[in-house]
Write a structure and sequence with these properties.
The chain is mainly alpha-helical. The chain has helices spanning 2-66, 70-102, 111-132, 138-165.
């Protein structure tokens, strides 16, 4: 009888351990899938911010030729599209913030990936701010956007490399 109880206890503990490991593996897999998706969304939204920022060059050039101030030139050249893009960027930023909330507590296995994801998000925020409110100086604006674009690519590669090796 004692051997049977010992065997049942052993089998129960083994089953509990397997279920626990399986649950943790599912949790890690779910986190990885979500984190990769969020990283991709942030990256693509950063690209949209870069495109919006680069569109300002046309408005600066137009302002220079016509003698208009930049805001008036941007309104005239970029018009409703610019306003629509900015509104969409604000909505996308809010969605990204919601997605990041879901990833607040990463499994230990993904703590480094989570750190890189937050770094990518910080770069994206800077690009977002430049896309919403461009700098007054075209050269400084372009230089900032180009620098942040390079940082975005580098950080995305770092993030992808982490997932490739997990």
């Amino acid at each position: 009888m004692k051997k049977i109880l010992t065997f049942i206890t052993f089998v129960s503990l083994a089953a509990f351990f397997l279920i626990s490991c399986s649950s943790r593996a599912r949790e890690e897999e779910t986190y990885e899938i979500k984190a990769i998706g969020v990283g991709n969304v942030i990256f693509h939204q950063a690209q949209a911010c870069i495109n919006q920022s680069k569109a300002y060059r046309t408005a600066w050039e137009y302002a220079k030729v016509t003698g208009m101030d930049f805001k008036s030139a941007a309104d005239e050249i970029l018009g409703q599209d610019m306003k629509d893009n900015k509104q969409m960027m604000l909505e996308n930023k809010a969605q990204i913030e919601g997605m990041l909330q879901e990833l607040k507590k990463p499994p230990d296995k993904y703590s480094e990936a989570h750190k890189k994801l937050k770094e990518l998000y910080e770069i994206y925020l800077k690009l977002h701010n430049l896309a919403i409110e461009p700098l007054n100086d075209m050269e400084k604006h372009d230089a900032s956007v180009n620098d942040l674009a390079a940082q975005t690519m580098k950080k995305k590669e770092e993030l992808d490399n982490i997932y490739d090796y997990q």
